[in-house]
Task: inverse folding
């Protein structure tokens, strides 16, 4: 079973990316780029949170939540 986990993860990623592309084509005229990006990240977060919490392999301290969130926010808003 463990041997097939990478292939299952790749297949799930392909399905998620494909559905995101299709969904983007339908809503691109009705939403702005920032709200579309927020929706994508929110949906991805909601899809990945249950497996991460159920796996028990990923552990971090509560005090690390704010620095991790700040790092992700800064990565998304960098200027060139």
Result:
């Amino acid at each position: 079973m463990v041997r097939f986990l990478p292939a299952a993860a790749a297949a799930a990623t392909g399905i998620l990316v494909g559905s995101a592309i299709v969904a983007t084509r339908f809503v691109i005229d009705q939403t702005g780029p920032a709200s579309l990006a927020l929706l994508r990240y929110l949906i991805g977060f909601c899809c990945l949170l249950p497996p991460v919490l159920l796996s028990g392999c990923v552990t971090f301290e509560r005090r690390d939540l704010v620095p991790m969130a700040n790092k992700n926010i800064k990565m998304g808003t960098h200027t060139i």
Observations:
- The first helix runs from residue 5 to 27.
- Residues 30 and 51 are 32 Å apart (CA to CA).
